[in-house]
Design goal:
Blueprint: H1 4-10, E1 18-22, H2 23-35, E2 41-45, H3 52-59, E3 65-70, H4 73-81, E4 87-89, H5 96-107, E5 112-116, H6 119-132, E6 136-141, E7 146-148, E8 151-153, H7 163-174, E9 179-186, H8 189-192, H9 202-232, E10 239-242, H10 248-251, E11 259-262, H11 264-267, E12 284-295, E13 298-302, E14 319-322, E15 327-328, E16 338-342, E17 354-358, E18 371-376, E19 379-385
Parallel strand pairs: 1-18, 2-3, 2-11, 3-4, 4-5, 5-6, 6-9, 9-10, 10-11
Antiparallel strand pairs: 1-12, 7-8, 12-13, 12-17, 13-16, 14-17, 15-16, 18-19
The structure holds pyridoxal-5'-phosphate.
Protein name: Amino acid aldolase
GO molecular function: D-serine ammonia-lyase activity
GO biological process, one term: D-serine catabolic process
């Protein structure tokens, strides 16, 4: 396992702060993920990667990988321009300009699929398709959250919560001359995106594991029932998408699911250490440099304040990775332009030495850096641009 000296040596000639991608670890993570796919396809969640070159590296690594789950229309169009096809935009598109862009690709027969969950979405797409002389491929997003004891366990996204509601949307879409049903998606965020092995919250882990078991039983039944009902109507679906990194091991076992989405598992950011079902090494991280030593055991570095999105908490701060035992200081955290690190271990740290950090989430780090410096066998062998490095900013 790469240690502090490994990264210090590998990154010694790279200007800090810098982000890196360890290609050897990425290969291990890809291997582990394909091994858990249970003969299902894996769609890559681009929001958790945010680099064209990395997306291509993963897609080319195995035939198990098929298609990209995009996060905006602009991004899907951008990826199409780089030769990607089978682009599923996982979140509804409303903007007229964006719908026009997608229509243009649809007229050229590209596989670019938009998400719907309501009659309002269907009306909007029909109007745009009529004006732009195209048909849209649509995917229906079904809600797979659970409500237990007055607690909402899951996310607030699709209003489609019942079989009847799903069939009403399906019937309306099948009756349209402007839409073609391409697939169904259900994202069980409460399983895939909720940590259940956080060492800082041992009692809560048990509650979450209990809720996950209960919710899984419910959602598996619900997805199965809805997909079977759609099939009984004679509608053929190109794909049934589910899951994420945190649920790959179980979503890939569902008979009606044809593909599972995975994004974060490739980089394995800080938050993904806290799952019971898998253990992976971090393939991506960043290095900040010690620029001042205000007192003994405190090493203040330039940069570092890259906080992750979502409900805020200690777990959304960057994680100090190496040297082992180094940590953030509660009063200051990771700062806007400087980050003090507490370290009282055996390694002699001095000005100019790096502190190796990890972002809490996967793709968001790439919005802070132009490049991912590529490390293989302990040496820098090149660099990949991120979306930011390509001068792109989607969300
Ligand atoms: C619709 C959808 N599917 C899948 C995922 C899983 O992505 P990851 O594997 O990066 O956790 C997400 C993440 O938020 C999502 O929104």
């Amino acid at each position: 396992m790469p240690d502090y000296d490994y990264y210090k040596e590998a990154l010694k000639n790279v200007t800090k702060p810098c982000a890196f991608l360890n290609l050897d670890v990425l290969a291990e993570n890809i291997h582990d993920i394909t091994g858990k796919s249970n003969n299902k396809k894996i769609r890559i969640a681009s929001k958790s990667i945010r680099s064209v070159a990395v997306l291509k590296t993963i897609l080319n690594a195995s035939p198990v990988f098929q298609g990209i789950m995009c996060f905006t229309a602009d991004e899907a169009v951008y990826l199409n321009g780089h030769g990607f096809d089978d682009l599923l935009i996982a979140y509804p598109v409303w903007d007229t300009y964006h719908l026009k862009q997608i229509a243009k690709l649809r007229r050229d027969n590209h596989i670019i699929t938009v998400m719907i969950d309501s009659i309002e979405h269907i009306d909007r797409l029909e109007k745009a398709a009529k004006a732009e002389h195209c048909t849209f491929l649509v995917c229906i997003d079904i809600d797979l959250s659970s409500d237990f004891f007055g607690l909402h366990f899951g996310v607030h996204r699709s209003p489609i919560k019942t079989l009847e509601h799903a069939m009403a949307i399906i019937n309306r879409a099948t009756g349209s001359n402007y839409l073609q049903i391409d697939g169904v998606m259900g994202y069980e965020a409460q399983i895939a995106g909720v940590t259940d092995n956080d060492p800082n919250q041992k009692a809560k882990n048990n509650v979450i594991r209990f809720l996950k078991r209960k919710s899984s039983a419910e959602l598996i039944k619900k997805r199965d029932m809805i997909i079977k009902a759609i099939k009984r109507k004679g509608i053929s679906l190109r794909f049934v998408n589910g899951g994420g990194t945190g649920s790959l091991h179980q979503t890939s076992r569902e008979t009606e699911v044809t593909e599972v989405t995975v994004g974060s598992g490739f980089f394995n950011p800080g938050l993904f250490d806290y799952y019971q079902a898998f253990k992976r090494q971090p393939a991506v991280g960043f290095a900040i440099e010690i620029t001042r030593i205000p007192t003994s055991h405190i090493y203040t570095c330039s940069g570092g304040g890259y906080i992750a999105s979502g409900a805020t908490g200690h777990d959304k701060q960057p994680h100090v990775y190496l040297p082992e035992g180094a940590k953030l200081i509660a009063n200051e955290g990771a700062g806007e332009v400087q980050t003090p690190i507490y370290y009282a271990g055996k390694i002699q740290l001095t000005h100019g030495d790096p502190i190796i950090m990890r972002h809490s989430k996967a793709g968001e780090l790439c919005e802070r850096f132009h490049y991912l410096h590529l490390i293989q066998n302990g040496r820098i062998i090149g660099k990949y641009t991120t979306y930011r490095g390509d001068n792109q900013c989607f969300l």
